[in-house]
Amino acid sequence: MTDRDAVAALLGRTPEGRFEVVVRDAGGGPVVIRNEPFLADGRPMPTRYWLIGARERLLVSRLETTGGVNRSEADVGLDKVGEAHARYAAERDACIPADHQGPRPSGGVGGTRVGVKCLHAHYGWWLAGGDDPIGQWVADHLHEVDHAAHARVEVNHG
User: Mind telling me which Pfam families this protein's record contains (predicted)?
Assistant: First the structure.
């Protein structure tokens, strides 16, 4: 199976733009992709790093449903989140040709300008090596929602 096929299976649809798999799981499957700044039809793509691994997406979704977005913002602070958005945007914008005419992607992580919109986007960038304090926060808190790890601990201590 090609990366494009594997990514399409994980997304449930064919990707609309070019991407590169930048993080893989132990079996070689895609976990994070890095998207080009524009889709094939020229529309801006604000999400440069996209968390697509099924297990990772599930765990981060669980963290979001337990108030993770608000907790991460409160714990990290909006000033540091803003700095992360600026780093993300600068990296993405560096890939756009200087003579580009037309719409451009905007915002920072996941297209957001202020605060945290989506823990998935932050964690994906962090897994890919991004300097993202929200992604680090997610990594530090996933154990709270990883029921399989919790069950293993219970079995080992029971």
Answer: DUF501
